[in-house]
Amino acid sequence: MTGLSLGEKLFIQGGIAQDLRTDGRKRLTYRPIYVETGVIPQASGSARVRFGGTDVIASVKAEIGRPNPMQPDKGKVMINVSCSPTAAPIFEGRGDEEVSAELTVTLQRCLLGGKSGAGAGIDPTSLIVVEGKVCWDLYIDGLVISSDGNLLDALGAAIKAALSNTAIPQVQVAADTSGEDQPEVDISDEEFLQFDTSGIPIIITLTKVGRHYIADATMEEESQMSSAVSISINRKGHVCGLSKRGGHTG
């Protein structure tokens, strides 16, 4: 995005102060949200989400693995975000690595909770097949195709939609396996379990411009922010995660 002139900055700030943003929205109104699932056939689950000019894809790959010896009753969940260098000018050079790392860490905090697992939206105990020996590993990848602000909310929505589209194959464990041997497993090609997304939160980011907070900020509005707070909330109204960041006003 090219630098804004003083007049453009004042126009954005003045509109927000009067509860009439440059695209006609009120301060707490989102842009139209479009969700499409099953966009990557070879993935276990996938979704594409668009908030105006922000366009992201999330995919889920489920693979059989072995639990961490320190957490034998839990499967593993890995989240990673990549930003296309063409998504926005700030992603050129090493900018995409910095933004990708920040988004990855924040999504992990919002969806996986703390180190103890407290507040986790994804229950890792539900991924266990045989305690201490066999589990499901979930690899969740987010890709930013185009950015016009509010990436965190869009990626959170895409991951939730992708997980709701995820089918975990039924697994049969050989009954005659005992002791320290790794059990033999038979993964079904026909029977699947739908992933439970009831505990997975949505992420809502409020961006402060001047004296007011706005929802679903565009990239131009984000350039004028002084701070932002992102809250992940589940369907029961419980806060699962909180993330704050500063900004610039110039």
UniProtKB/TrEMBL annotation:
* Main localization, broad class: cytoplasm
Could you state one GO cellular component term attached to this entry?
Answer: nucleolus
* Molecular function per GO: mRNA 3'-UTR AU-rich region binding
- Gene Ontology process terms (BP): exonucleolytic trimming to generate mature 3'-end of 5.8S rRNA from tricistronic rRNA transcript (SSU-rRNA, 5.8S rRNA, LSU-rRNA); nuclear mRNA surveillance; nuclear polyadenylation-dependent rRNA catabolic process; rRNA catabolic process; TRAMP-dependent tRNA surveillance pathway; U1 snRNA 3'-end processing; U4 snRNA 3'-end processing; U5 snRNA 3'-end processing
Intracellular or extracellular location(s): Cytoplasm; Nucleus, Nucleolus
All copies of the Exoribonuclease phosphorolytic domain together span 30-169, 199-247
Q: Which UniProt keywords apply?
A: Cytoplasm, Exosome
| Listed InterPro entries | ExoRNase_PH_dom1, ExoRNase_PH_dom2, ExoRNase_PH_dom2_sf, Exosome_comp_Rrp42_subfam, PNPase/RNase_PH_dom_sf, Ribosomal_Su5_D2-typ_SF
Which family does the UniProt entry place this protein in?
Belongs to the RNase PH family.
Q: Per its record, how is this protein called by name?
A: Ribosomal RNA-processing protein 42
Task: Give the organism the record lists.
Answer: Trapa natans (Water chestnut)
